[in-house]
Amino acid sequence: MRLVSTSKFPALRLTALRFPVAAALALLGMLALAPAAQAANPLEMNFWLSGPRYDGNLPACEAGLTSVTYQFGEKEGTFWNSALRITGYTQLREVAFRPWQSDNIPRRYCAAEAHLNDGKVRPVYFSIIEDGGLAGFTDGVEFCVVGLDRNWAFNPACKAAKP
């Protein structure tokens, strides 16, 4: 097998340089001929595109306990094949309400001590989220029981469930 030097074939060298230059020029030509972006017309701006209107009317922390109890039991029974359930709560308190800018989705952060049916008491952190439920029609609840975050969604030690 014999290697051929391109210095003996200047036409081969020029062909190799022409392709990238031609491709770049073609791309620039297409971009120059593309229509300019236009702002939305009044119909597009005002017809079903008004965006979310959060008013921040969230229930107190007590309203989220039923959901936390149900979701915890469902998760333990369905995914972890466990009979562990929450039997009660103590030391319920609000941790924060809308801790960030007012443009964010309103959330009420709460903490409590959860009493489990195995006799242990564990901290639980949860948030009530405006329009965070199914399809945004109801308020949603996210929670984490310290030591029982088995899929590590809020690890370490439920830190991601806090504000």
Class based on secondary structure composition and strand pairing: alpha+beta
Task: Please tally the β strands and state the result.
Answer: 4
Helix and strand element order? HHHEEEE
Which of globular, elongated, flat, extended, rod-shaped describes the shape?
elongated
Amino-to-carboxy terminus distance: 69 Å
How many individual helices? 3
Major β-sheet annotation: 4 strands, antiparallel
Keywords: Signal
Signal peptide: 1-39
Quick recap:
Keywords: Signal. The protein has about 160 residues and is of the alpha+beta class. It has helices at about 10-35, 40-45, 60-80, and strands at about 85-95, 105-115, 120-130, 140-145.
Describe the structure.
The protein is about 30% helix and about 25% strand. The chain is an alpha+beta fold. It has a domain at about 60-160. A four-stranded antiparallel sheet has the order 1-2-3-4, with helices on one face. It is elongated and about 85 Å long.
